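dumping the sequnces here before i forget
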Amino acid sequence: MAMKETPQMKSARANMRPGKLSLPGFLGDERDLARLLDEDNEAVKRLGLTHAAVAARMRELRDAGAKGLGEFIAVAPHFDVRVDSVRGRMPCPFGERGLYPKTNVTVRNLATGRDITYTDLHIHLVAAHGFYEGRGTPYRLEPADLAAILEIRPANKEETP
Amino acid sequence: MMTAFLIGLGVMCAMVLLMTLVILVCDATIANYGPVQIVINGDKEVTVEGGRPLLSALKDRQIFIPSACGGRGSCGMCKVRILEGAGDPLATELPWLNAQERRDKVRLSCQVKVKRPLRIEIPPELLDVRQYRTTVLRLRDLTYDIREVTLQLAPGDRIDFKAGQFIQFEVPPYALTDDPVYRAYSVSSSPSTHDRVELEMRLVPNGICTTYVHKYLKEGDAVTINGPYGEFHLQDSDREMICVAGGSGMAPIKSILMRLDELKSPRKVRYFFGARTGRDLFLVDEMRALERSLPDFRFIPALSAPEPGSGWQGETGLIPAVLERHVTSVANAEAYLCGSPGLINATVAALKRKGMPEDRIYFDNFG
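..and the predicted 3d for all of it:
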């Protein structure tokens, strides 16, 4: 059964409009935030993961990559990670206090040749809201891509959803 | 009794809601604030169209406040002091303002609507900021992800800036944006070149400006910039200099070095540049030429992970560690740093361990 839109989600959906907090917005082609959250929640469950486990791995690779001081650095077993920043900070569209630095974490999986880029705000959105942004935005993170590229396996699970 | 109370409460709520809606609709459609006067720094007066955000109202009068997010309140750069005429800070401003700034009446100019006469204070140098229409003279790939852009100003136009300062580059609407947006970039050319500016831009994944520059911009295209901005610039002193950069942080340091070269400065300068492998290094020939030209300059590139078999014979390791090996005394030195927050923080810590006071460490932190 689909999740109902709470007042907080309604306000978040307004913040996610293009041009409100970021130029492209957060939802892309998706109009229904509750459905998007439902679908991504199901996708993460099918992978045998939790949002907390996904966010923990994103955080772990960001912290390892930060040691490269803005350049790519090798991270075991076969990743190259770069943590770089651009000017500015972003608030969470769900309305929590605080601002997230515009930190770009680029992870290259050298075993598969695939790469993915995410931000500090993404880590918060996944951990706190199970939100991966809407399809059609440049910043959408597919849970399956994150799991494959960052090699997040069910064994990494921190807690059950 | 309870029913009557509930009906009364409902009616009251409905009336409040209705009045709020009427006010919002009037504000958006009918309210005409007309021309509004703004007094800047106590002596300069401009008249702007009321009802618009202060940031864009000033821009229409050719007064440019730096902003990296295009007025969405997400960069916190467009702070000004509003001494009179503005209400309390909005919720969207509060995360950006510390207690002292709130006491000092600092506001985000992108969030303040001009509705009545204002008295504001801005750094005086912002009154010298101008907008320039330029043409792309040359595009040059310095590495696989760093591109040099040379912009030619219109004939007769002239830009004055200090070595180390930055400009804002306007990205026109294209595939990734429906509206023009501004992004800040340090100038890498010498301030004595008044008819051109050179920039170095690293491709940021999904970055609106860098994607435009790396994938869409062509030689001959028109580009609008404004500037100069920034408190990071070459200081008028004769101290020894320690310069540190990584990636496109090269840009302001190069401008500083070119200025020193023109001045034939005898200052001792050591420039530590961090990269991962040989293919992340660039402008090495230019730096070696400066070593020959400047009396006491050394360029010290360091690779954190040189490719096996590359024959790299220079320094290896991360820049703060390399710097600690090379620098023996900071007693008469000042430092200029440009790069990611990680590089800046680690280098500041290394310099402080050496005994350098914080007020002699100048940096341009991208974060």
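Residues 25 and 86 of chain A are 18 Å apart (CA to CA).
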